[in-house]
Amino acid sequence: MDLSSFKDIPVVDAHVHFWDLKAEGEMMKIKDACRFTRINLLSIYDRAKVNQNPECIYMKARHPGSFYAFGGLDYSAIFSGQRIAEPSLCKQVDAMIDIGLDGAKMVEGKPTERKVIPIAFNDDFYRDYFAHLESLGFPLLFHVNDPVEFWDPLRTPSWAKEQGWFYDATYPTKEQLYSEVENVLDRCPDLKVIFAHFYFLSANLERASDFLDRHKRVCLDLTPGIEMYYDFSARREEWRGFFIRYQDRIVYGTDIGGGQSIAEATSRAWIVRKFIEAGDEFTTPKESDNLLGGPDVPFRGLDLPNAALEKIYAGNFERLAGPRPRGLDITKALAECRRISEIAARNGVMPDDNGAAQTASILKNI
User: Fold this and answer.
1) Which of 80, 189, 237, 365 could serve as a FRET partner for 289 with CA atoms 20 to 30 Å apart?
2) How far is C-alpha 136 from the chain's CA centre?
């Protein structure tokens, strides 16, 4: 898809995943095709490989200035049966900063992941961690919840069921997760946090407005969940007013994945840009991946003014994470990749799949 018709405004994609070093070339092609000024790579925890921090470090090292990186946590001690993290979560944050990462990422609020790590966010386990992020002003991109229909077997779309994203009584409820986060934000009102996928509030404009009014440091990203674009279109004029009112609190993102085709990746970038830049009706492009399926109903774009677009596309994220990606401390990055590599090897990860070991071999020659 051609994105050249969109406005010539710098764009930082704040929400991209990268987990396979072999996808480096494709990621660089995606960056160019989507006309991204810079990309924020998100690491998440991995039970075998620990997290994807080494892969994100690799891209920062290989392409200085092009990639931010938000690090995932290390739950190895928890998976081995302990009740505390080792290193502690606060020490892990300090290590991210020392290495030169730009923020933290958590997917632990997605109901499927909450089953893997069944610890409430207002539990003492996380108390010092959130307070530490707040005190340091280190930004967090946080996935909490999922679309409300995923808790209703009659409304859960087939593509979500294929991913295992439908939730019975054995999962936390949507309101339980929201309640935990409210408790965290009440304790840490200055926490710099971006909630992924619009915090799954697109079906309730009034609640989204109240949430932003009560929590002044919170931002929401526009990463599909395609359901939110149908919700926005259904109350288009009201949502357009919302986007203009809260233009300082909304962040551009796509959820592009490192192994994705260029066609699928540019389709995601096109959908989000088309929706906030144009005012006409459009449908999901045929090139889109299967997570962007929905009813045969067109979206109608918001046609936002340039001042709002400049903030949403780059300014708001740069305010939180800095105008440029932080530089790496190669020595500390190498030590961390070696540490993670050893854990992954003990977990049975083979050398060809051990991104930490491969990154370490690259870093020692820089």
Assistant:
1) 237
2) 20
Report the pLDDT value the prediction gives residue 243, as an integer from 0 to 100: 98
Instruction: Judge if the upstream peptide bond of residue 189 is cis by omega within 30 degrees of 0.
Output: no
Q: What is the pLDDT of residues 174-192, one digit of tens each?
A: 999 999 999 999 999 999 9
Distance from C-alpha of 304 to C-alpha of 247, rounded to nearest angstrom:
10
Q: What pLDDT score does 363 carry? A: 95
Residue 295 has a pLDDT of 67
Q: Which amino acid is at 114?
A: R
CATH 3.20.20.70 at 12-363, yes or no: no
- For the stretch 61-71, pLDDT in tens is 999 999 999 99
| Residue 282, pLDDT above cutoff 90 | no
Domain spans of the chain, in order of start: 12-363
Does 316 have pLDDT greater than 80?
A: yes
Global pTM? 0.96
> Which two three-digit tokens encode residue 233?
């279109």
Give residue for tokens 């999901």: 284
Pairing of strands 193-195, 140-144: parallel
Residue 84 has what pLDDT? Answer: 94
Q: Are 315 and 251 in contact (CB under 8 A)?
A: no
pLDDT over threshold 70, residue 160: yes
Q: Are strands 299-300 and 281-282 parallel, antiparallel or unpaired?
A: antiparallel
- The Cα-based distances of 103 to 9, 36, 85, 134, 311 in angstroms read 24, 19, 19, 12, 19
Check pLDDT > 70 for residue 114: yes
Question: CA-to-CA distance for 94 and 224, rounded, in angstroms?
Answer: 31
